[in-house]
Amino acid sequence: MDGRERKDVRSGLTVDIVLKQDQRTGRLTRGVVKDVLTKSPSHPHGIKVRLETGEVGRVKEIISH
Asked: Domain for residue 51, yes or no?
């Protein structure tokens, strides 16, 4: 499942995100969602989240529900 719909993304999920500095390469970072930062119901590039590690990026794939 991709992370373009806000209703699909919530705290505690394991996700793959792309960090701002990795957008050119598409390198993914895996982590657990701490905060959902995007306010709109959807975003074409993925919902922006903060991981428990403090890293911020857009969700590319939801790993576990």
From this structure: yes
